[in-house]
């Protein structure tokens, strides 16, 4: 078997890359370890930056999103039981945030690929990348039917997430790893209840950070800061609602509507970047190369930004043999990655509470008040939050 690009992983990075290559007439095979239903049911991110929404439009994957997603023109910051609206569209020349969950994007992209009759194999196992530093790389794997397969290709796109095999294929002495673990985790909750807000609420509270988000007019999404080693078993539904009420509470009579909690999970928070994002004919994209703490909702958006660059570079090479974009892929992608890392970290520090550090707590309040009162500070926050592509480019 042979293809032009072997794509490892059918998360947002792999699926969107596959779609871009399809539209450019480049052949690809996507190999995914999990089953289709597992991938489509995995609950993760929910906020799309303006440019990610535009990309989905360009790729013709926007039909359901246009019908079902809510478009947000602002967000709310809460602290000291007060609320402050940040008018992000107004301050960024009209950039909005679109609420459409990751698994819906994944579903739409899988449906489009299957409708095009293009190769997408689920349930593959034991994926090994061979000869990535030669001109004839190969992917060996065990297919879902148990047969051993060899896929010859021109390039391999490592879109297999943080725990994937692609990054580990690159010799350790070639890579520099940058890493930071935070002393917090997020307890994420999905509840069958109408959201008590139209826009996202980011709350900074002495008991810890809380976020009120949403998935639809009937489903709310919440996150609570918890200690990194927290046991989910200690979080009854009643305790979750009580904590949300406390952390989101205001003095102006706002109330939180409660409903049935359908899922709960705990996610560790880390910053991680590997450099370079390429080795020979292997190119990493998305979580395979970097992880951001979730506070600024950049993970999915960065994955989309990476594969847009990678698709351009690959298509240029296949069209003309010009490899300048491919050679520059890692540097190009890393500019946006470090910008997003910096903002994700600063938004995390701004909103979370470390009880051991009272000085920090005072500094956070000074910064929060600055962001909510200075138009320049608010504008800078918004430019980063909506992911203006110019941010950080020199
Ligand atoms: P993934 O989505 O991880 O996809 C990688 C795919 O590769 C998976 O389908 C995996 O099964 C497959 N795979 C792995 N190993 C192999 C292998 N050896 N062979 C074949 N296939 C393989 N981001 C936000 O912006 N906001 C959020 O609220 C948010 N919440 C999150 C919550 C959780 C629990 C997690 C884990 C992440 C969250 N993120 C969030 C981050 C965001 O979901 C990721 O940044 C995004 O999924 C990255 O997409 P990706 O395609 O690079 O990786
Ligand atoms: C969501 C997650 C985030 O990390 C965020 O900043 C905003 C929204 C969400 O899952 O809805």
From TrEMBL:
Organism: Actinomadura craniellae
Protein's name in the database: 4-hydroxybenzoate 3-monooxygenase
Keyword Oxidoreductase: yes
Ranges in coiled-coil conformation: none
Keywords of this entry: FAD, Flavoprotein, Monooxygenase, Oxidoreductase
GO molecular function terms listed in the Swiss-Prot or TrEMBL record: 4-hydroxybenzoate 3-monooxygenase activity; FAD binding
Domain FAD-binding, chain residue ranges per copy: 2-344
Phylogenetic placement of the source organism: Bacteria, Bacillati, Actinomycetota, Actinomycetes, Streptosporangiales
Keyword flag Flavoprotein: yes
PANTHER family tied to this protein: P-HYDROXYBENZOATE HYDROXYLASE (PTHR43004:SF3), TRK SYSTEM POTASSIUM UPTAKE PROTEIN (PTHR43004)
Signal sequence coordinates: none
EC number: 1.14.13.2
Top enzyme category: oxidoreductase
Superkingdom of source: Bacteria
One of the Pfam families matching this protein, by short name: FAD_binding_3
InterPro entries in UniProt: FAD-bd (IPR002938), FAD/NAD-bd_sf (IPR036188), RIFMO-like (IPR050641)
């Amino acid at each position: 078997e042979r293809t032009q690009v072997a794509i490892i992983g059918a998360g947002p990075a792999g699926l969107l890359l596959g779609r871009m290559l399809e539209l450019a007439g480049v052949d690809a095979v996507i190999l995914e370890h999990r089953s289709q239903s597992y991938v489509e049911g995995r609950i993760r991110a929910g906020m799309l930056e303006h440019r990610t929404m535009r990309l989905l439009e360009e790729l013709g994957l926007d039909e359901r999103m246009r019908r079902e997603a809510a478009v947000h023109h602002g967000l709310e910051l809460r602290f000291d039981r007060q609320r402050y609206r940040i008018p992000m569209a107004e301050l960024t020349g009209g950039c909005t945030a679109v609420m459409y969950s990751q698994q819906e994007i994944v579903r739409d992209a899988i449906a489009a690929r299957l409708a095009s009759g293009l190769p997408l194999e689920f349930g593959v196992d034991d994926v090994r990348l061979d000869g990535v530093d030669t001109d004839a790389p190969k992917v060996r794997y065990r297919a879902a039917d148990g047969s051993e397969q060899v896929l010859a290709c021109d390039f391999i796109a490592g879109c297999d997430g943080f725990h994937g095999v692609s990054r580990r294929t690159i010799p350790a002495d070639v890579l520099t790893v940058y890493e930071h673990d935070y002393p917090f985790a997020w307890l994420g909750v999905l509840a069958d209840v109408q959201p008590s807000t139209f826009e996202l609420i980011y709350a900074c509270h002495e008991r810890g950070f809380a976020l009120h988000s949403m998935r639809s007019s009937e489903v709310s999404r919440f996150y609570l800061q918890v200690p990194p080693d927290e046991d989910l078993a200690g979080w009854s539904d009643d305790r979750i609602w009580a904590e949300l009420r406390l952390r989101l509470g205001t003095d102006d009579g706002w109330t939180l509507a409660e409903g049935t909690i359908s899922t709960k999970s705990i996610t560790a928070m880390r910053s991680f970047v590997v450099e370079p994002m390429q080795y020979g004919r292997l190119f990493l994209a998305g979580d395979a190369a970097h992880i951001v703490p979730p506070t600024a909702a950049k993970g999915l958006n960065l994955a989309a930004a990476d594969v847009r660059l990678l698709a351009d570079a690959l298509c240029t090479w296949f069209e003309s043999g010009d490899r300048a974009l491919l050679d520059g892929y890692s540097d190009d992608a890393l500019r946006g990655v470090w910008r997003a890392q910096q903002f994700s970290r600063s938004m995390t520090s701004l909103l979370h509470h470390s009880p051991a550090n009272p000085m920090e707590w005072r500094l956070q309040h000074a910064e929060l008040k600055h962001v909510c009162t200075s138009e320049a500070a608010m504008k800078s926050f918004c430019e980063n939050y909506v992911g203006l592509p110019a941010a950080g480019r020199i």
